[in-house]
User: What shape does this take?
Amino acid sequence: MIAYILRRTAQAVLVLLVVGLIAFSMFRFIGDPIDNMLGQEAQQEDIDRLRNELGLDAPLLVQYVRFLSSAVQGDFGVSYGQGRPVADILAERAPATLELALVSGTLAITFGIVFGVFTAIRRNGFAAQAIMSLSLIGVSLPTFLIGILLIYVFSVELGWLPSFGRGETVELGWWTTGFASRSGLLALILPSITLGLYQMTLIMRLVRSEMLEVLRQDYIRFARARGLRTRTVYFRHALVNTLVPVTTVIGLQLGSIIAFGIVTETVFQWPGLGLLFVNAIQFVDIPVMAAYLMLISVMFVLINLFVDVLYFFIDPRLRVDRSEASA
Assistant: This one.
C-alpha cells in the first residue's frame, strides 16, 4: 500500500512538472505584458529595464525554474496588473471558488446518484423516462447558455434570485463566506446549478448504466433467490458494486468543477479564481496565470491520487490482487 502511494506520488509530481512547463511555454503566445504595463509609446530603455526587472529577458526554461523554486516556498511572484503578491490575491479569491465548487459538487453527486439509481430501478416508469429526457438539457446545452437562461427566468422575469455577484459575505478570520448571510445563500443558487448540472447528468447516466449492468449479474439473481429484501439487493449489493467505476468519474468531475468554473464565474461575475484568470489573460498577467494553472493541476493530481487510494477501501478485489502479487 505504501509503495503504491509513493509510486503514484512520484508520477503525480512528474505530471505537475510537465503540465507546468507546457502551460508556462504557452504564455508567450498570449502577448507581451510590457506593452500593457508601459503602453505602446514607451521608450526602449524603459522596456528593457522593466523586462530585466521582471526576469522576462531570461530563457523560458530559466523563468520556469525560477517560478518553481519560488512556488515551492509559497511565493508566486507579484501580479503585473495589481502590483500585489499573487499568493495574497489567490487567498482572497479562493473562498468564493471553493464554496461554489462545494455546493455544485454536493448537488451533482447527491442528485446524480439518487436519480441514477431511481432511473435504473424504475427504468420503464414515466418518471424515470421524464428524468432521462430532461437530462439531455444538461448534456447538450453549453454551460454559458444554461447560465443565461437561468438568469433570464429567475432574475429578469421572476426577480427571485440575484443575477451576479456573491452577495453579502462574512469574514471568519482569513476566510470570507457567503453561507452566513441570506443574500450570500441566494447568490449561490444559480451559479451552483449552472456549474453542477452537466456533472449531475453525467454522473446520473453513468450510475444508471452501471446499475443496470450490475442488476444483470448472477450474484444479484442469487441474492433474490435467497429471499433477500428488494431494498437490500438494490442498495447493499448492487449499489456498492456500481459505485466502484463511478468513483473515478466523480473524482474527475470534482476537479472539473473547480477547473472549468471559469465560464460560470464569468457569466455570473462571481469573484473567484476563474474570473481572476480571465482578467489575467486580458492583462497578460503571467504570474497570476501560472499560479492558477499550477493550483488547478495540483488539485487534479491530488483528487486522482485520493481516488486511487479510495479504490483499496471500496473494492476488496484490489486488496486481494495486491496480497497475491506480493506473495
Observations:
- Residues 171 and 177 are 6 Å apart (CA to CA).
- The chain is about 75% helix and 0% strand.
- Strands lie at 170-172, 175-177.
- The chain has one domain: 86-326.
